[in-house]
Amino acid sequence: MSTKKDPVVVYSVDNCAPCDNTKKYLRQKNISFTVRDVKKNPSYNMDLLRMTGSRRVPVIVSGNTIIKGFNKTAIDKLN
Description:
Layout: E1 8-12, H1 17-28, E2 34-37, H2 42-52, E3 59-62, E4 65-68, H3 72-76
Parallel strand pairs: 1-2
Antiparallel strand pairs: 1-3, 3-4
């Protein structure tokens, strides 16, 4: 489980509706986050593959918590 001290990182790409919805929902919940675009930076893509075994986005990482896809219930637990 993450704590409020853990930074929130969103692995994302441009023109991705679930990615956009994830970022919008995080903003609505006042959760600060950093975006890592996996198409613009190949090392982020490799990090994503290593962590999740997949290259599918969005993925949220906070501490030991990994959230795959746009999942409001899981995001609410970050707060």
